[in-house]
Write the structure tokens for this entry.
Amino acid sequence: MNKIYYSPSHEYIRVEGNTGYIGVSDYAQQQLGNVVYVDMPEVDDEITAGDDFGAIESVKAASDLIAPVDGTVIEVNEALADNPRLVNEDAMNNWIIKVEIADPAQLDSLLDEEAYKALCAAEH
Amino acid sequence: MNRKLYGRLIFELSREGRQGYRLPDNKLPDALSSIPASLLRSSDPALPEVDEPTVVRHYTNMSTNNFGVDTGFYPLGSCTMKYNPKINEEMAALPAFSSLHPYQPDATVQGALELYYTLQLALAEIGGMAEFTLNPFAGAHGELTGLMVIRAYHASRGDDKRVKVIVPDSAHGTNPASAAVAGLEIVEVKSRPDGTVDVDDLRPLLDDTVAAVMMTNPNTLGIFEKNIPEIARLVHDAGALLYYDGANLNPMLGVARPGDMGFDVMHINLHKTFSTPHGGGGPGSGPVGVRKGLEQFLPAPRVVRNPDGTFSVEAPEEALGSVSATLGNFAVQARALSYILSLGREGLKQVGPLATLNANYIKESLKDAYLLPIEGLCKHEFVFDGLRDKSTGVTTLQVAKRLLDHGYHAPTIYFPLLFHESLMIEPTETESRETLDEFIDVMHAIAEEAITDPETVKSAPHDTPISGPDDTEAALHPVVKFSDL
């Protein structure tokens, strides 16, 4: 299983087994503009669906990063600390945190690719 | 400006051993011996070494790079960049004010204390409040002070459950920031599509853990919160207090009073509504007013009028501690009182309506070329969501930069966050019809240019001292020291 889900607050979670790679969507990085800082949690931190786990700052604005699911942080993308522009270059492959998903059933309440595209189209 | 000769840093003009000024001989050679060696400098400070004409030319040329309300139209939304009448400067510069020391005995500064007291009374009348403190140094300092007053009020009733502050999603960032500094938890209430607070979203958030609800009225989109009486009732029914962020008081001036709308605590930005300089020019001033029954919680020190007509500075025991060592930014207070007394009651009553008229005039004149997300009357400011024609790829940032080439200060951009391409315009009441028309023509020309010659807009500005700075790189790796250059 390797599927991508989206939240209405524009985070994605790419799921591989019980592991989730969480980042911001390509649409989100376009809207944010040039990213200058990504505030990330630490390994072993617990994240809770709907709560912020960090923040992303661009030349335009600073936004909270909202956790799409409950889980435990396994790894943070250290490359973003030195080079936050990676988010603009390829948001979908430059994930922000890697988590152990606590409850896979929570994924069902997220949006799939098609529903997310519709959401972005409506927002624009 | 003569950029070739004087566009350099003063440090680059330095030549070793050059002097523009000579200190007198040290007539107290023994004085240094009383200072511990650990506190004495062992090498000379790294100051630039330049002659006097170079210093004068350098700074005179640099000063022509400034942009202010005295050099051009400054429609910076949310900032109320109104013209600062020169009479204010004359009043603040009167030697009897400008040469005072903040710790002079009360008896020797009666005039200054009377000025403080009179301004406090005037603001109370304008805001519909019982009493004001003029001590906070700026708007956000006022917010913090106001929230501390609210905490003191709840604490005085033994009510220690109230730890939350409700803030609309369209609020200025200072609202949640001030609440956090005051040790309170922030809860966001959503806006409706027309930009006003969603009362249905607010209702379930109100319970006995809420200390205050902070509102800006008109809100950040320049829309008047028509439901304010109902919101005030709901907030008070829940035992919380209603806080008025005075950021947008300008259009209300002489027309409506926060106190009459049901607000309990408010702050005023003298540097916005009362025409004192700000925006890099500062200093600000953020007086805080409270309704009857909350006066005792205002911070110390306070100016009181004695029965014999004299004034004294007091620090009542039940007062909140001090939020400032002295009575605030006195020279700013002098300017604000000068403004109030110059305009008088009749003049002040025209401020709000004229600010509103000017904003609506620009909005209606430009909505054919710029996307207006919320139709209808605005108050003193409004927000476009970028250009109407999105196909050119020209962004709000680029429109703003192109305006610089035409000699205007850019409007506020990418705020509020409710729209992707926010372009927020606030003309204020002090601009003439001709100034507004010229600005409208330029905005139309830029919209047209975005279609006919988008590259020129995208690469703007072209006529400013510097062009095309890499703002991402500047944010990532700011160079703040000459030695890092």
Remarks:
- Chain A has one domain: 2-123.
- The helical segments of chain A are 26-32, 79-82, 86-89, 113-123.
